[in-house]
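Retry 2 of 3 after timeout on previous attempt. Resubmitting structure tokens to design endpoint.
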């Protein structure tokens, strides 16, 4: 299929998505958004701390339940099935790019997808989060975990990456992602979300050699998984260590940092990497030590102050409180301005939330937030 002015080479099944994509939206018109080379994109330049015409913005969980189209799809298709249908996953990935005008897409999936191939029975319960029916309890469970070949175990996600890249061409870059070994371990051990991580910490602190075997396996899987995504076309990576903030600085340093550092060393050369964690403002220096071109922070700390502590030899991502998007335009605007001011116009700031978009967020508030970031940061 040939579309005038757009250089893509797409197969028949992909053309369905492509037509949908072209029909919904006219070409993006924000300042300098029509670069033909991905390398020139504001988001990728900000990852390298190069000056940009405005601050790029995207949102964690930008393709999710707050979008009407997403809810429509989910009424027909279960979450895991959606993740495993490349055409649909690509469609969902593209929704926020065209609807909201964000500066990057993130491939639709979940941090827990690679765990299935390792031998874990994964379910997503309605209205809630993930549930693992066979959580890890001891040595045998850990030894049984398989190291995955991403091409065999998550081919659907790699295919979705290929489709999205063909549709987007060089206009908007695509971010790939993985959970960090600690955050993945916490789901494997707790069996789902946890308030206190008692079981995870028990294994980590009392069964050191088992913890090491588990973390080694998860490190290897994370490296393979992220490399495979780069190989298929993602232009940046985000490592989610969402629950690292439940740890003390010394436990993070001793039992988590070495594994995250190895992941980042082994994949960070292939694409710019954003290292995100929540609740870690007390040990940001250790997050930096683990690595990343850009450090993603939550809203519990002042972005300017955090950047000063981190040092300006890394970029920073964040950090609007997701709840602010449930308020009014005035409040959103004021918060956006505060964050931009605290970043002080320095190259290397990527605007984002401090955690994922809440499902009850009005979509028009997200669009307004994205516009506000572009408007106030224009230079
Ligand atoms: O439709 C539904 O009911 C499913 C809700 C949902 C969605 C939309 C889940 C279940 N995952 C996702 C998508 C998802 N998850 C993406 C897609 C790309 C995007 O738009 O950002 C990404 C990057 C994730 C990553 C993810 N999953 C993380 C790390 C990011 C974060 O929010 O900290 C974590 C911790 C998960 C686990 C998970 N999967 C789903 C839920 C509701 C959760 C969190 C559960 C918990 O609190 O423990």
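Retry 2 succeeded. Sequence:
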């Amino acid at each position: 299929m040939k579309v005038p002015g757009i250089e893509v080479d797409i197969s028949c099944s992909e053309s369905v998505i492509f037509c949908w994509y072209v029909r919904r939206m006219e070409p993006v018109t924000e300042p300098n958004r029509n670069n033909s080379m991905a390398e020139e994109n504001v988001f990728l330049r900000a990852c390298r701390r190069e000056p940009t015409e405005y601050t790029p913005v995207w949102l964690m969980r930008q393709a999710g339940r707050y979008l009407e189209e997403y809810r429509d799809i989910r009424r027909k298709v279960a979450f895991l099935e959606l993740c495993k249908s490349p055409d649909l996953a690509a469609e969902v990935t593209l929704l926020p790019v065209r609807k909201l005008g964000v500066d990057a897409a993130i491939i639709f999936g979940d941090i827990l997808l690679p765990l299935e191939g390792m031998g874990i029975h994964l379910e997503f319960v309605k209205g809630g989060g993930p549930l693992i029916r066979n959580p890890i309890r001891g040595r045998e469970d850990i030894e049984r975990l398989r190291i995955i070949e991403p091409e065999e175990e998550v081919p659907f996600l790699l295919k979705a990456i290929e489709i999205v890249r063909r549709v987007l061409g060089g206009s908007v870059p695509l971010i790939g992602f993985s959970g960090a070994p600690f955050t993945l371990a916490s789901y494997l051990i707790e069996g789902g979300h946890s308030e206190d991580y008692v079981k995870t910490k028990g294994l980590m602190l009392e069964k050191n050699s088992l913890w090491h075997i588990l973390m080694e396996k998860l490190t290897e899987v994370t490296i393979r998984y992220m490399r495979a995504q780069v190989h298929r076309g993602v232009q940046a990576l985000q490592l989610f260590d969402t629950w690292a903030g439940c740890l003390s600085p010394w436990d993070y340093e001793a039992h988590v940092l070495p594994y995250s550092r190895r992941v980042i060393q082994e994949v960070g050369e292939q694409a710019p990497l954003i290292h995100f964690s929540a609740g870690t403002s007390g040990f940001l220096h250790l997050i930096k030590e683990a690595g990343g071109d850009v450090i993603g922070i939550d809203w519990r700390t002042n972005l300017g102050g955090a950047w000063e502590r981190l040092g300006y030899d890394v970029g920073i991502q964040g950090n609007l409180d997701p709840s602010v998007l449930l308020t009014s335009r005035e409040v959103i605007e004021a918060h956006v301005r505060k964050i931009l001011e605290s970043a002080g116009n320095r190259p290397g700031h990527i605007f984002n939330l401090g955690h994922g978009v809440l499902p009850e967020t009005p979509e028009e508030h997200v669009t307004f937030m994205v516009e506000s970031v572009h408007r106030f940061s224009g230079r």
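Attempt log closed. Residues 60-65, 74, 79, 106, 108-112, 124, 129-130, 177, 193, 240, 242, 355-356 surround coproporphyrinogen I (CB under 6 Å).
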